[in-house]
């Protein structure tokens, strides 16, 4: 288990140059935008426009802050995403355009290489104690709002807003968490 503090997340320009992304975690470590196997990041979207194209990649997006945006995904009906929406999965290698509802938003992105990996992203509302049974090799728990403590075996720690916990070789782990927080759990498995 590795705690990733908000202040240590890597800031970098979008692939299409239209904004900035905050990289929470990537595999392999220090991989660039063309060479990652999986990537978890946040981005602020301040204007309408196209998403970057990532060949052979699947993406799931959730709205963390703001009034939402509509995604025009090629071959699908427009999808309005808000902070109350479930995360939305779609291919990252087809044309997608974003239209903001009312001002800038911040989103959370999980991306994996389709040929070798699959992923899921779920929002968790934590109010008190909870046990998370982990069933895939790689999991990342992002504390979006609030704070929580965690325990797994002899390892303990805490997460504040923006911090994340990266767990590898996580199959069969039962992560005990306690606190009041809105979190997102990304689970990454072999495809």
TrEMBL record:
CDD domains: cupin_HutD_N. The keyword tRNA processing does not apply. InterPro entries: RmlC-like_jellyroll, RmlC_Cupin_sf, Uncharacterised_HutD/Ves. Keywords: Plasmid. Residues 1-11 have a biased composition (Basic and acidic residues). It comes from the Bacteria. Residues 1-20 are annotated as: Disordered. The keyword Signal does not apply. Pfam families: HutD. This is HutD family protein. It comes from Rhizobium leguminosarum bv. trifolii (strain WSM2304).
């Amino acid at each position: 288990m590795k705690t990733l503090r908000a202040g240590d997340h890597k800031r970098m320009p979008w692939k299409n140059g239209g904004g900035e992304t905050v990289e929470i975690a990537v595999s392999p470590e220090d991989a660039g935008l063309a060479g990652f196997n999986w990537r978890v990041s946040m981005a602020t979207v301040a204007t309408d426009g196209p998403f970057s194209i990532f060949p052979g990649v699947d993406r799931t997006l959730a709205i963390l802050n703001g009034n939402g945006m509509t995604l025009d995904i090629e071959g699908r009906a427009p999808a309005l995403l808000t902070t109350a929406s479930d995360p939305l999965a779609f291919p990252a290698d087809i044309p997608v355009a974003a239209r903001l509802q009312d001002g800038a938003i911040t989103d959370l992105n999980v991306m994996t290489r389709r040929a070798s990996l699959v992923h899921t992203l779920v929002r968790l509302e934590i109010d008190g104690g909870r046990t998370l049974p982990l069933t895939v090799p790689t999991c990342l728990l992002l504390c979006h709002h609030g704070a929580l403590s965690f325990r797994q075996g002899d390892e303990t720690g805490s997460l504040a807003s923006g911090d994340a916990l990266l767990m590898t070789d996580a199959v069969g782990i039962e992560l005990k968490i306690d606190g009041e927080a809105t979190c997102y759990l990304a689970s990454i498995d072999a495809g």
